[in-house]
Specification:
With 126 residues, this protein is an all-alpha fold. It is built from five helices and no strands.
């Protein structure tokens, strides 16, 4: 039976289509591409092919991209750990600020802190 999740025509070349595409993207773009495809296949599940099998295939594709996202994140972590061993002054993921991490995971998204509502008693005490 043919693989409906990652069919052979994606692997016919010397380099798999996804690998070739990702080789041209930044880390943030790779994470975004994975997250986009996870959302796309999840949201459309059962709509393109309106059967249980069609739904399963779309969820399988979303799962494939979840696995790929985990692989990419693991590779990024290992790359940073290896670089840190070579250059101890290099930053590690633990050294990233919350804003740096959010920019890596959600490039271009503006992080706006949530303002707490003041309690009426606080206003009177000022």
């Amino acid at each position: 039976m043919a693989d409906k999740i990652n069919p052979d025509h994606y692997k016919d070349n010397k380099i798999e289509t996804c690998d070739a595409t990702f080789s041209q993207l930044s880390e943030a773009e790779i994470l975004g591409a994975c997250k986009f495809n996870i959302a796309k296949y999840t949201f459309r599940a059962g709509k393109k092919v309106q059967t249980l099998e069609g739904t399963r295939d779309d969820i399988g594709k979303a799962h494939w991209y979840c696995e790929r996202l985990l692989k990419e994140l693991t590779d990024m972590i290992n790359k940073r750990k290896k670089a840190k061993r070579k250059d101890p002054t290099d930053i590690d993921l633990e050294d990233l600020t919350e804003e740096d991490l959010q920019e890596l995971l959600n490039p271009g998204a503006k992080v706006v802190p949530i303002k707490k509502k003041e309690d009426k008693n606080d206003k009177n005490s000022k």
